């Protein structure tokens, strides 16, 4: 896992973010992007029980509502009423 996948990660731009706990700048990819011991899984579509069949780009199906629809695995789901961690 990477900092990017943590609930405590704050996006700043397309290359970096900040840890809400340590206040350190962390890159999205590359050296220094690995998750720390305080890692907490972020609510994203990709870790929801209702997300299925992702393609090579991370686009899959959301089956949590009456009407199925597509979703990105990295889409934030903290406010989704149907989100349920796998």
Helix-strand blueprint:
Layout: E1 9-11, E2 16-19, E3 25-27, E4 51-52, E5 59-62, E6 69-72
Brief write-up:
This protein has 86 residues and is mainly beta.
- Rounded to the nearest angstrom, the radius of gyration is 14 Å
Instruction: Kindly identify the CATH topology of the largest domain.
Output: Ubiquitin Ligase Nedd4, Chain: W
Count of distinct structural domains: 2
* Strand residue content: 15-25%
Number of strands: 6
For the terminal residues, how far apart are their CA atoms? 15 Å
Uncertain spans, ≥5 residues at pLDDT below 50? none
Mean pLDDT: 95
Q: What is the class of the largest domain in the CATH system?
A: Mainly Beta
User: How much helix, percentage-wise, in residues?
Assistant: under 10%
Question: What sort of overall outline do the alpha carbons produce when their principal axes are compared?
Answer: elongated
Largest sheet: 3 strands, antiparallel
Q: Specify the CATH architecture of the largest domain.
A: Single Sheet
**Major β-sheet strand ordering:** 1-2-3
**What string gives the helices and strands in order?**
EEEEEE
Give the class from helix and strand content and strand pairing: mainly beta
Total DSSP helices: 0
């Amino acid at each position: 896992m990477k900092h990017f996948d943590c609930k405590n990660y704050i996006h700043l731009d397309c290359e970096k973010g900040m840890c809400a706990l340590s206040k350190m700048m962390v890159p999205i990819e590359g050296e220094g992007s690995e998750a720390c011991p305080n890692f907490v899984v972020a609510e994203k579509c990709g870790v929801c029980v209702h997300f299925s069949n992702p393609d090579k780009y991370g686009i899959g199906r959301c089956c949590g509502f009456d009407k199925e629809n597509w979703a990105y695995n990295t889409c934030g789901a903290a406010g989704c009423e149907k989100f349920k961690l796998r």
